[in-house]
Backbone:
């Protein structure tokens, strides 16, 4: 079975640009979460989506947005990129069966570098 | 607000040692506690998950324990090998999908 897949694997942008990162959850998983991991730190929660609705938001500016599609895949968008946005962006999915909280399964991430 | 701490930040040991990795959290109202492994430049691999009603979980050479009352979890690695070298992260999960991570502990096992 395919795990959580993220694209692209690496991305280089310049300050002020916009970026879109993509995530496909494990088949049957309806919940997708996004995390930002700056070098040397643990991942920080950005968003959680379930059934195409935002269910949780971390302490990130409005430049960060996301959405979930009918097939449960998700996009993370970041506008007006800053040097500090350079990080590994991780996507996680879980089944979320009958409202029960389930373990998170992570993809390999997208490495975003801002010049 | 949940805060998760892992001390020390790095550990270097000779091959064959039994290791204890510590994780502490401030809010005992957790749903589960999860341990992950991260290799350089890679994503997170789940090692063990302990539900709040459980005391410990085991997988091969790994054993994780949970003491909610004291806000602590421990990952025990038996007979460490060079292939165990990685960063180990613990994460607490409350009443939502959100995971709160520690900063991780970088483990180096020397042959």
Residues:
């Amino acid at each position: 079975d395919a795990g959580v897949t993220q694209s692209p694997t690496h991305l280089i942008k310049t300050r002020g640009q916009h970026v879109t990162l993509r995530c496909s959850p494990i088949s049957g998983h309806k919940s997708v979460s996004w995390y930002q991991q700056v070098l040397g730190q643990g991942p920080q929660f950005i968003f959680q989506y379930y059934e195409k609705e935002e269910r949780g938001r971390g302490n990130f500016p409005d430049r960060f947005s996301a959405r979930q599609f009918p097939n449960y895949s998700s996009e993370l968008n970041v506008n007006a990129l800053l040097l500090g946005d350079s990080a590994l962006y991780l996507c996680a999915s879980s089944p979320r069966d009958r409202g029960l909280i389930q373990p998170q399964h992570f993809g390999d991430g997208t490495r975003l570098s801002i010049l | 607000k949940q805060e998760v701490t892992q001390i020390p930040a790095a550990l270097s040991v000779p091959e064959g040692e039994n290791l204890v990795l510590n994780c502490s959290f401030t809010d005992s109202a957790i749903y589960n506690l999860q341990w992950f492994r991260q290799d350089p430049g890679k994503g997170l691999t789940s090692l063990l998950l302990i539900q709040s009603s459980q005391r410990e979980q085991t997988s091969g050479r790994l054993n994780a324990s949970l003491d909610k009352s004291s806000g602590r979890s421990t990952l025990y690695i038996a007979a460490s090998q060079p292939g165990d070298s990685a960063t180990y992260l613990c994460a607490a999960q409350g009443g939502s999908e959100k995971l709160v991570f520690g900063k991780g502990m970088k483990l180096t096992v020397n042959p």
